[in-house]
User: Which sequence fits this backbone?
């Protein structure tokens, strides 16, 4: 039996029971309309916690510290996040400042620093302005409707907040999974970071929690691309506080399947919104590869395609240039048979059995002109399926990221 | 004893003794001033031959055919190349057309098709216009000073030819290594290809020939990046005809070392010229990583840095944004110690022991404004050394590759 997953209206990171959040503007980011730059996410009940972190060899100390506080034996109550300064490449101060940020937040909330995570995003190579942290973190009031404030506090040059929540019922108990994310914009002199914070009021076994998050991240955040670069600060967390009052979710039943599906829906939404809001982007590109030998092959090939500059620029130019799609899929070096490949733009077929076919050019150009473009590559050699999301590459990306402001 | 390597004035692919070349304009490319679109490279003496080819899962049949004719047991006399049409993704016709191109060239030159290689670059998904091949290949006159004509015949949207030759003496016998290449431009509706053809009049053992070429390609063509995409048609060949009259070169002596160094010099020059002439580029970026645990670590990290869009746009914007350099080096996921990293722009140090230091901003901005920018990352954890070359990313790249011309 599959349990239905429902969308939660105005869903956000505080939609799950027992989570509260708040934010403040401390002046770390350039001041502007309605900006926030420090956020707090809090659960009075202790939470099981799962996390995935940047694989970059150079990590922010905030990542190092938070990673050490996530695991099956750990419990957390809170996350403090600042935008505007990445706390990366600042020497021995970095870890001390990260620790102090969690101490300030923990004292304010009445929990321990070890139960508090920290994330930072912004300029690399600049120390965290700790005086501002000491002054402003204690001013943050975490409330049950503070999710949107928190969503704003983690943004850098994102154009909009990214929020969602979904729910499912198990034996009359409503379980909710919600989250927020921020994406890849740039604040001089630095790349920004991909952050996502998700929460649930389900009562989840810690090992199952991490396995579920890792599986969802593989099919969501790991399948998006804006510019091929990987931040030193990337973090995704999932906190489960059990406030819904349901039975333990630990895999192997319908409730666990619904939970995993809910987490995947939340992660995919938050990931797709990051791709859509990519720096300079005018449209979202969804690439589906099916008929591969394996799902992993299809995931890799779809990601190569979504990440290809030549595909990105072709879509921007409304050019049904399937030769670039072939090149990008082949770059994945997966087994395939060129003579079996079909290609589609939205639902219009443009390649059959590896060769060009005639199609209505104006229809395809029109499809490429929309806000969302779906590319599908059917390899027809197996059952492997994967999707990835990117955005187009425009002059605006170059202008934005080459603007000299030192 | 190290043998000195000398530059050959106006050196090209026919500088080595016994090689001739020629070209013709058949009308495959858009007509223009002085264009050529079919070229022939020929040696009357049979040549040992080495080659490296695209790793893309989707290959042009011209690559498949040529690869089957390269190896330690094989000998070749000629290469026929066309630009303007890639002969890729055209179904079963592709391999037949590639074979016929070698038959036409072989008949014209009085050799066999099996002794003839073929390369194509240009539009994917369009069949080779064989009537033009049948008419124009026999019109090509290969001459000893035809290298520059041949260099023009392989270009697509390159702005200039890429040619070089070097020589060294062994026991009074002058050995020459020369070559030409073409790079990554775009001809609608398709990515172009990286091709390089190198020649030598040295008498080289076939196994040593392939080992030498593979080692040189690793340190040259595999270390350049324009846009992260890999063509279906990439090919590098090295033909050795022994016309210099020297002793056999098979490794382990000063002559072999000089030969390997000469091949490396030729390949690095041709590779760097491709990076410099990248689509829309205004400058060459050379990235050196030293002090890594291994050369492979340094090669990977330098390539990640040269390929990073954020580094490319920062250099374009004359922005000494070392946070992006850190991110890109860390993306290689090599072992390093952040607190030991030093960074330099040209020779000006901007980072010491992983942290920002004060420097003369105007000097660095001025350095970044030159035609060539050298970035150096000293990891200070070992002796590993590697270099890579890229170009800046400009609005012009996006404009060029998104221009809608279907």
Assistant:
């Amino acid at each position: 039996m599959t349990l239905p997953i429902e969308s939660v209206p105005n869903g956000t990171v505080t939609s799950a029971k027992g989570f509260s959040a708040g934010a403040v503007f401390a002046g770390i980011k350039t001041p502007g309309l309605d900006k926030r730059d420090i956020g707090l996410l809090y659960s009075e009940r202790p939470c099981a916690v799962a996390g995935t972190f940047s694989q970059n060899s150079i990590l922010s100390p905030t990542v190092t510290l938070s990673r050490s506080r996530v695991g099956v034996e750990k419990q957390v109550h809170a996350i403090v996040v600042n935008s505007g300064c990445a706390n990366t490449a600042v020497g021995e101060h970095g870890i001390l400042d990260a620790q102090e940020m969690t101490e300030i937040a923990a004292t304010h909330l009445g929990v321990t620093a070890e139960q508090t995570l920290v994330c930072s995003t912004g300029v690399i190579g600049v120390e965290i302005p700790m005086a501002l942290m000491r002054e402003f973190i204690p001013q943050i009031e975490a409330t049950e409707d503070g999710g949107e404030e928190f969503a704003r506090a983690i943004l850098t040059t994102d154009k909009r907040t990214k929020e969602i929540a979904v729910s499912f019922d198990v034996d009359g108990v409503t379980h909710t999974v919600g989250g927020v994310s921020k994406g890849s914009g740039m604040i001089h002199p630095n790349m920004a970071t991909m952050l996502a914070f998700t929460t649930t009021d389900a009562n989840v076994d810690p090992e199952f929690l991490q396995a579920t998050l890792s599986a969802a991240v593989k099919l969501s955040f790991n399948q998006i691309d804006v510019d091929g670069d990987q931040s030193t600060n990337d973090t995704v967390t999932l906190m489960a506080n059990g406030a819904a009052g349901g039975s333990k979710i630990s895999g192997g039943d319908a409730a666990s399947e619904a939970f995993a599906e809910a987490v995947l829906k939340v992660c995919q939404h938050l990931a797709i919104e990051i791709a859509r809001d990519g720096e300079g982007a005018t449209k979202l590109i969804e690439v589906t590869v099916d008929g591969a030998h394996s799902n992993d092959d299809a995931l890799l090939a779809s990601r190569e395609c979504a990440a290809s500059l030549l595909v990105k620029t072709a879509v921007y130019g409304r050019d049904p240039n399937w030769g670039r799609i072939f090149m990008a899929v082949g770059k994945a070096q997966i087994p395939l048979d060129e003579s079996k490949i079909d290609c589609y733009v939205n639902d219009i077929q443009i390649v059959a059995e590896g060769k060009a076919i005639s199609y209505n050019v104006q229809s395809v150009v029109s499809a490429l002109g929309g806000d969302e473009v779906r590319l599908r590559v059917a390899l027809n050699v197996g059952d492997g399926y994967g999707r990835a999301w990117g955005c187009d590459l425009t002059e605006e990306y170059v202008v934005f990221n080459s603007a000299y402001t030192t």
User: Anything to note?
Assistant: Chain B touches chain A through 73 residues (CB under 8 Å). The two ends of chain B are 59 Å apart (CA to CA).
